[in-house]
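[step 3/7] fold_predict: job queued, chain A
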Amino acid sequence: MNAVDVMTSDVLTLTGESSVLDAARTMLRHRVSGMPVIDWSGKLIGMLTEGDLLRRTETGTERHRGHWLELLMGPGRAAADYVHAHARKVSEVMSDQIISIGPDTTLEQAVATMEKHKIKRVPVVKDGKLLGIVSRADFLRALVTKSDAAAAVPHSDEEIRDNIQKELDRQRWAPRAAMKIGVNKGVVELSGSITDERERMALKVLCENVGGVKGVVDHLAWVDPLSGMAIEPPDEKKR
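[step 4/7] structure written:
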């Protein structure tokens, strides 16, 4: 999936001439923590977020630096702090260092961009024009939509087993040679051995993510790779 497949295209936007107070009201009314700023042609020129409005004179949070620190940093930094705390227009407080992605950016790349820059949303831009925005909420919607679609497709036991095996073959950590997979009416039974208890949970999660799986029964024994000592699986101990 790409950014264009999950982005929100009906985006709330601001202009550079919008007032900071109106921007704050809009963000509160629509319960968003950030908004793109565009010019008259629809070109993206900046982003305004809650973080840009934290240090404001109205709330008594204007930044006050020590005298010696101000001398070291120079008058320019103090002047910039003053603008941020007192400005009335969005263009004067917004961030113009824009982090954006294209419509064909994969979701993996979009997530990597958001993690790298520690942002909650990223604009989708083509030829400088704002097409939409991808936020964390869009990833949640994509997760639910894709999961619901997969659950609605019926699968035979043979298909389930084959799909589990294919996923196991893609995972280097999976103990493929030491385990067996059985499927009966959608319930997966895992038997054999593992050498690390963390593999148990990973195998369970792997199976649960395969379409058509209704449950997972664990018959996997843990074997100490150094001593060869085997410990029965949890469900076998209860018996």
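[step 5/7] annotate
The chain has two domains: 3-144, 157-238.
The CA atoms of residues 93 and 159 lie 56 Å apart.
exit 0
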